[in-house]
Amino acid sequence: MSWIYLVSAGLLEVVWAYFMKQSDGFTRLIPTSITIITMIASFGLLALAMRTLPLSTAYTVWTGIGAVGAFLIGTFLLGEPANMMRVVAALLITAGLLIMKFS
Q1: Name one GO biological process term (predicted).
Q2: Span 38-55, mean pLDDT?
Q3: Could you tell me the CA-to-CA distances from 51 to 1, 7, 26, 31 in Å, in that order?
Q4: Which domain holds residue 47?
Q5: Secondary structure of the chain in the HEC alphabet?
């Protein structure tokens, strides 16, 4: 169950990062509200996952999901550049997450 909490927390991290960008520096009410709500939920689920998972695993996987997810959202929804170095970096982060999961 802790892995479900952790993956959900990571996905919510992607959601709050996207809506933080959409909030325009917290000047738009709805994106700001979504940012705060999903941020709290993400931290809460991370805390639940950390009841049984080691800090080093939980935090690394949480931030990795957020980093790769934010890269994908930025690339596909926001039109940010996806040059070869950025794609390789995202793949290396994903490889690291898989190694962390199975270690």
Answers
A1: xenobiotic detoxification by transmembrane export across the plasma membrane
A2: 97
A3: 11, 15, 32, 30
A4: 2-102
A5: CHHHHHHHHHHHHHHHHHHHHHCCCCCCHHHHHHHHHHHHHHHHHHHHHCCCCCHHHHHHHHHHHHHHHHHHHHHHCCCCCCCHHHHHHHHHHHHHHHHHHHC
- Cα 1 to Cα 26, 52, 97: the distances in Å are 34, 9, 18
Give the C-alpha separation, 102 to 84, whole Å: 27
Number of separate domains in the chain:
1
Please state the rounded mean pLDDT for residues 22-45: 98
In this prediction the pTM is 0.88
pLDDT-derived band at 5 (thresholds 50, 70, 90) equals very high
Residue 102 confidence (pLDDT) = 85
